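Lab notebook: predicted structure, single chain.

Context: the supervisor wants predicted structures on file for every construct in the current expression panel, including those that have not yet been purified. This is the next one on the list. No modifications to the sequence; it matches the entry in the shared construct table.
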Amino acid sequence: MNRLELYVNKDITLKVIGDEEIEPIFHTIDNEREYLGEWLPFVKYTQQESDTEEFIHSTESAELKDLTFAIYYQKNFAGIVGLKDPDYDNKKVEIGYWLSEKYQQKGIMTLSAKRLIQYAIDELQMNRIQLKAATGNLKSQRIAERLDFTYEGIERDGELHAHGFVDLKQYSLLKKDIVK
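Prediction complete. Output recorded below exactly as produced.
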């Protein structure tokens, strides 16, 4: 079965995750626990490759079809970007992402998210893309700002992390906001 691939540029490709990503995803999480765990609650529960395998298989069987892509930078696994909790009746979806520490500051996530947003609007016919970032997660907030998302407010105690609940900044990007 062919997995969906989205071309970003000569260095970056997005590929729907499958079994071939189990090892690189787990290896990245396992080697970057402190870095990734600061803002990603699932890191503490990802203790062995089978946890990653279970996650990948859950995305394959998602009823409303969350779409999770591996980000490849110069053919090397660099992170994840995905669309979750699609609401097809109201034409909205949330984008989420994480990037290995060694691939930071190269524009990879901004370009990857931009490409996935384009796919969500053009192919999935979404009107609204939502993005949530912990109030302390400045890197994630900067991506929202670079992509011209509109800040809408704070979701209080929106996500449970290892150190307790964190507030989330809520952003949105509407189809009409995108200049082509």
